[in-house]
Amino acid sequence: MRFAGFIKTTLLDWDGMVACTVYLPGCNFRCPFCHNKDLVLHPEDNQLIEESIILDFVEENSDFLDGVVISGGEPTLNPELHRFIKELRSRGMMIKLDTNGSRSDVLEDLLGAGLLDYVAMDVKASLDDRYSMATGVNVDLQALRDSIRLIIDSGVDHEFRTTVVPHIVREEDVDSITESVRGARRYSLQQFRPKVTLDENLSVLDPYPESKILEMARRAKPRVQKVQIKGL
Ligand code: SF4
Asked: Is 23 left (phi over 0), alpha (psi -120 to 50) or beta?
């Protein structure tokens, strides 16, 4: 298994944990606001990192590392993910998985095997026709609903996240998004950053003002246990 990125130590990617973060190349979505466009569009162009480098680092530093964040791209597309997580587990690591939720079968397998300690799933828009606008592809919405239910019912710590991109996520959409994750432990509103975006037209788009995002957080609160705002 090979990786497109490896951050050896971070306190930012998993609250309260000292972790390293690995990035798997390739994704089945084409979100116009994606900041990882090279990893998504040209995964073969990345200088890939061998799995042994990551496992050796984890083993040598297991005294201070709490866990590993597995991100992407979309990690659940890799058929070796289950095996890799078991390798990390055998070295004493806890596991956080970042996912777009499109592979509910993979999530079911990993959760059923007790291999995950935290799941962060993107819910990019209302689960209706707007979803394809947010992802740039046709999405199996039932698979997303299945993933949401699996995560909430698993008892594993979790978070659902929405990047609030103007025109894609409207203020009122927060009602239906949080209805679809009702009861979740955490729901995060992530400010849109028009830096490097997969669709260059979005790089000139102004983000929502802080007041709008605070109003979205107020709308979200009744349906989830905790609301977080990131990137303000
Ligand atoms: S933002 Fe979208 S396109 Fe980019 S990695 Fe995540 S799911 Fe894939």
From this structure: beta
Domains and CATH numbers, the chain: 2-230 (3.20.20.70)
Model confidence at 84, pLDDT cuts 50, 70, 90, reads very high
SS3 (DSSP) at 101: coil
Are the C-beta atoms of 89 and 116 separated by less than 8 Å? no
Beta bridge partners of 11: none
DSSP class of residue 206 equals: P
Residue 203 has pLDDT above 90, yes or no: no
Closest CA to 122 of 110, 107, 109, 108: 107
Residue 123 Cα to ligand 1 midpoint, Å, equals 11
14-37 residue pLDDT tens: 999 999 999 999 999 999 999 988
Q: Ligand 1 centre from 5 Cα, in Å?
A: 15
pTM passes above 0.70:
yes
Instruction: Identify whether the C-beta of residue 197 lies closer than 8 Å to the C-beta of residue 32.
Output: yes
Output the ligand 1 site: residues, CB below 6 A: 27, 29-31, 34, 36, 40, 72-74, 100
